[in-house]
Design brief:
The protein is mainly beta. It is built from eight helices and 51 strands. The radius of gyration is 30 Å and the shape is globular.
Length: about 1000
């Protein structure tokens, strides 16, 4: 995207946001001049709303408000989108806690295509995107693992990205199954713990709440600029109940096919390069050294770079590699709901639910990258940022034949430039989440009892995965032929541009390529997460200031399991000789690569060529030549974590004419058990040695690569089993109170202690460490391999995320369906979790060794997150309306410790300082037009090389429209990411010149019809 395009996008975004605030301001000004008060509470025409166990004035209950009336008592009936937002506002007002509510316009008609996209319009909510769709949700500046998402009040298991997570992936959830969503920003004792940021409860519909033989059928097509494909989505729901309304069944399903294409540019492994670390330590762009210099990553060769012409660079930041990647994902999404209800007698209702969410996600990822390999022989120039400390471009040129390294020395051929490295991954993946629960609800007079039993289970990961890389050159004996003579990268407009020799693709077609056998990989991870639960809630109501007393208990027993393995093609199955270890395995055929560069690059990066691997042809060759791949499970690499939770609570709810709220205490006991493994991979050597020994350039085979040692000689793997058990208790008090200052002015406050458990992937104490011997590093030196240890590991000593939170808000309901409000919030955090990439010294086999780099997680402490939410909603008499909100969040910087050592400082990970949402809509009896603008400020991520990664500010505009063709038949259309926005990251808060990544997932359009019956 050009600078002028970005300026036009900003102008459109600011215009939309300004218009929204203007409408809201006009409404409040109009209200101040009105002679009659607004009715209180403002309520919408009743809609079918799911039930949930809660006091009668809470979101999600079956008690619905009376029809809307104006101040004079005349009925004004509203329908459609306006009805849904007014109903949501009414439920927000009536709640005791700080709650935001989203209500579907009608059965099967949620406000957005994705539930997360609707949630991002709630004050203080930001989302992460996957393929342009909302996937993870964060509340008030805290990372998504600290948001608890529940389906009808219980945890939903999801294992979609090879790692089990407490954070729900909204990609699994069809939005047309949802009736309403409650976003609790302040907790109540009756709600499950785990949402330090907040708790989101998704409510589905129930047959006894709906008319018999009602439902919908929808057909929709979607088109994206990055795929240029039109793909289908079909869905439907049918609800039936008998005439006595004692038995009902609801079934629904959604099936969707979607190709998602991501364009990503990235710069990874930023290091400080210098010839003399002592006199030239790492600095920021202002020349300041870092207090945590030991956490800064220095280029391990202790060197800068010198060009072919002798220009010397020293004392600067540079990435180890710059890459461009195109990922094509074929997603097939299936969602199924089956609900049955029966009332064996008047006071007792039994509800059984089954939900299945499934995503088949096969993808091919093709990439090209320019690693640091060329800094020795081919480096010909670079440019730096204005501070002179950060590389912004680098050029690499092959010398003329007979000069420099293009001279044969002994039996070694002239040098060849091995960039761009052409690489990719092919994967077949499937994620399935199944949830089953049974609920019994008894209500008689002033007593209510509800029990629930259920189980949720999810599995996910690849059934097959294969990665391979190639180089555009051929080395044969003493001959070295280059397929590319020039490589260059530069960071332009917060993205990456590549330039290569114009004949690169032609040379690939001529066969000037070889497979990089050391970069082939077929390993995979699969995971499983499950939880069983049982819950009992009792409520006794009174007709006094004490409105009700609730007590309850809940048992949860769950766990996670992760398995690893690889797929191997054996040249000799009897000896398990892998094809990569045979002579000639690096030789390529023309069909291994596409004969043309990949096109239709609509954003994300630029360049003059994008050569790519044809995985279908390459895999067909492997299967034809060596037979089908053999799955090899690594049964001794164990990862099993169990978690048993007991919880109990008591909550009192009080109410007078003007004052109401609740006071509660929740007790939770958590016991975690686990069996994991430390994995030590020892890379002993790689190439067959030359007669002069392991540190003499090894001889090459006919394919230009060294003669590779058998796998059993190259590496040794040692797995050591570890057992761990941990138990801790939490007492979680909470209080929520609301006071009607006037008929239309509401003052609300809350205080609570909250807790979230560490992510499952962080709980295991296992380490995955690799040691490269000097012999191995010598053989692989051109690929950046270095002698010593590197790796990653969990942290069994992690403390749960704990915080005290305080909220106070003022809400002015100045007209029917209208509000102007503000909330001040603060969280005092005693523990939070930060991902790290740094160099550490640890004990391995009894010895203290340097691990460089080491990826892990650590606790930060004594942090603060505080801010304000301002929001408004109003509709003008002729149907033009707006919803706007602004959130400001200020987080402190806290110290990060690992194994008792201070390793740096970081703000709260996942926090964004500002967020703006504005939605404009115009609605008539038959038509709805809506434009939505979302902007979030910089988001803090984990530490790399001692510095935080930051998401750049992001803004997006979406358009939605619908038109009632005839009664009950609606034509709808949407454009998602009208502005063609891109997601960018950079390293450090002193500049955005340390580019990390840029991602473009496309602009997407939808058109469809829905028939309601």
């Amino acid at each position: 995207m050009t600078v002028s395009d970005r300026n036009r996008r900003r102008a459109l975004s600011h215009l939309l946001a300004t218009a929204g605030f203007a409408i809201a301001a006009a409404g409040s000004a109009q209200a101040q001049q009105a002679t009659s008060p607004a009715i209180a509470p403002a309520t919408a025409q009743p809609v079918e709303t799911p039930q949930a166990q809660a006091p009668s004035n809470q979101p999600g209950t079956e008690n619905q408000a009376a029809p809307l009336g104006d101040a004079a008592g005349g009925d004004i009936v509203v329908t459609g989108y306006r009805q849904s937002i007014e109903q949501s506002l009414s439920r927000k007002r009536e709640a005791n806690a700080f709650v935001d509510v989203i209500t579907a316009e009608d059965i099967g008609k949620f406000p957005d295509k994705n539930v997360a996209d609707s949630l991002q319009r709630v004050p203080g909510v930001i989302i992460d995107r996957d393929g342009g769709e909302g996937s993870r949700v964060s509340i008030r500046g805290l990372q998504s693992d600290l948001t608890l998402t529940q389906l009808n009040g219980n945890f939903i298991a999801s294992a979609d990205d090879n790692e089990p997570s407490r954070s729900f992936n909204y990609l699994l959830l069809p939005s047309n199954m949802i009736g309403s969503v409650d976003v609790f920003k302040s907790p109540e004792a009756r709600l499950d713990e785990g949402g330090v940021g907040g708790t989101i409860i998704l409510h589905t519909r129930r047959p006894l709440d709906l008319k018999s033989l009602t439902g919908f059928v929808s057909v929709e097509g979607t088109y994206a600029d990055v795929t240029e494909k039109l793909e289908p989505q079909v869905g439907g729901q049918l609800s039936w109940k008998n005439t006595d309304e004692t038995f009902g069944v609801l079934v629904g399903a959604t099936y969707q096919v979607r190709t998602v294409r991501d364009h990503r540019a990235a710069a990874s492994s930023w290091n400080w390069w210098t010839y003399d670390r002592a006199s030239e330590p790492a600095t920021d762009v202002n020349g300041n050294t870092f207090a945590n210099d030991d956490a800064i990553s220095y280029w391990p060769e202790n060197s800068g770079s010198t060009t072919q012409s002798g220009e010397r660079f020293s004392g600067y930041w540079a990435p180890q590699q710059v890459s461009q990647t195109i990922t094509d994902q074929k997603r097939k999404r299936l969602g199924i709901q089956a609900t049955a209800q029966m009332k064996p007698f008047e006071d007792f209702t039994v509800t059984a639910n089954f939900f299945r969410f499934q995503v088949n996600d096969n993808f091919v990822s093709n990439g090209i990258q320019i690693p640091e390999w060329g800094y020795g022989n081919f480096f010909s120039g670079a440019t730096l940022d204005p501070s002179g400390t950060i590389f912004q471009s680098a050029q690499f040129t092959v010398p003329q034949d007979g000069t420099g390294c293009r001279v044969q020395v002994g039996n070694q051929p002239p040098c060849t430039m091995e960039t761009p490295q052409i690489y990719g991954t092919y994967s077949r993946e499937k994620s399935v989440s199944n949830t089953f629960d049974v609920e019994g609800a008894f209500a008689r007079d002033r007593f209510e009892a509800t029990f629930k039993l259920g189980k949720t289970r999810a599995t996910g990961g690849p059934s097959g995965r294969f990665s391979v890389a190639a180089k555009p050159r051929v080395v044969n004996g003493t001959t070295g032929i280059n397929g590319n003579l020039y490589s260059a990268w530069n960071f332009t407009d917060q993205s990456a541009n590549f330039e290569f020799s114009p004949e690169l693709q032609d040379n690939i077609n001529r066969g000037l390529t070889q497979i990089d056998l050391g970069s082939t990989n077929s390993s995979f991870n699969r995971s499983r997460i499950d939880q069983r639960y049982a819950q009992l809630d009792l409520t006794r109501r009174f007709e006094t200031f004490l409105d009700s007393v609730q007590i309850g208990a809940k048992w949860r027993d769950g766990g996670v399991h992760r398995s690893t393995g690889r797929n191997e093609w054996y040249a000799d199955p009897a000896t398990r000789l892998r094809y990569q270890d045979t002579p000639g395995a690096a030789a390529t055929q023309p069909g291994f690569f596409f004969d043309k560069p990949i096109g239709n690059i609509a954003g994300g990066f630029t360049g003059n060529a994008f050569p790519a691997i044809d995985f279908q042809n390459y895999l067909n060759y492997l299967n034809t030549t060596y037979g089908e791949a053999v799955r090899v499970d690594e049964t001794d690499f164990v990862y099993d974590i169990g978690e048993r939770i007991w919880a109990g609570y008591v909550q009192t709810n009080f109410k007078t004419d003007r004052f109401r709220g609740n006071l509660g205490l929740r007790y939770v006991n958590t016991k975690q058990t686990g069996v994991t493994s430390d994995r030590l991979q020892l890379l002993n050597d790689y190439c067959v040695n030359a007669p002069g020994g392991p540190f003499v350039t090894p001889p090459v085979g006919a394919d230009g690569n060294c003669l590779v040692l058998p796998l059993a000689q190259r590496e040794t793997i040692v797995n050591t089993r570890l057992d761990q058990t941990r138990s801790y208790d939490d007492w979680l008090p909470s209080v929520n109170a609301s006071f009607d200052v006037t008929e239309n002015l509401l003052l609300r406050g809350a205080i609570a202690k909250v807790v979230s458990r560490p992510a499952f992937s962080n709980l295991g104490s296992q380490r995955n460490l690799t040691f490269r011997t000097a012999e191995y590093a010598f053989d692989r030196r051109q690929f950046g391999e270095r002698e010593g240890w590197s790796g990653s590991g969990g942290n069994s000593a992690l403390n749960p995320f704990k915080a005290w939170q305080y909220d106070i808000g003022l809400e002015w309901y100045f007209k029917r369906g209208s509000v102007l409000g503000a909330t001040l919030f603060r969280k005092d955090v005693s523990d939070f979790i930060v991902p790290l990439v740094l160099d550490v010294t640890q004990t391995v086999n009894g010895d203290q060794v340097l691990i460089q780099p080491y990826s892990t997680v650590a606790n930060g402490s004594d942090a603060r997150s505080q801010g304000v939410e301002v929001y408004a909603q109003h509709t003008l008499p002729f149907g033009l309306g707006a919803q706007v909100n602004f959130t400001y969040n200020d987080t402190s910087v806290a110290q990060i410790t690992l194994e008792g050592q201070n390793v740096g400082s970081s703000p709260l990970v996942g926090s964004a300082k500002t967020q703006v949402n504005a939605s404009l809509f115009y609605e008539t009896d038959r038509m709805l037009l809506r434009a939505s603008y979302n902007r979030r400020g910089e988001v803090v991520r984990g530490l790399q090389s001692g510095l935080n990664v930051y998401d750049n500010p992001y803004e997006q505009i979406d358009l939605n429209a619908s038109y009632n063709l005839v009664e009950n038949l609606v034509l709808s259309a949407s454009i998602i990411n009208l502005t063609k926005s891109e997601q960018r990251q950079h390293l450090g808060n002193d500049t955005d010149a340390r580019f990390i990544s840029n991602l473009y997932s496309g602009r997407r359009a939808y058109v469809g019809v829905t028939y309601k019956f």
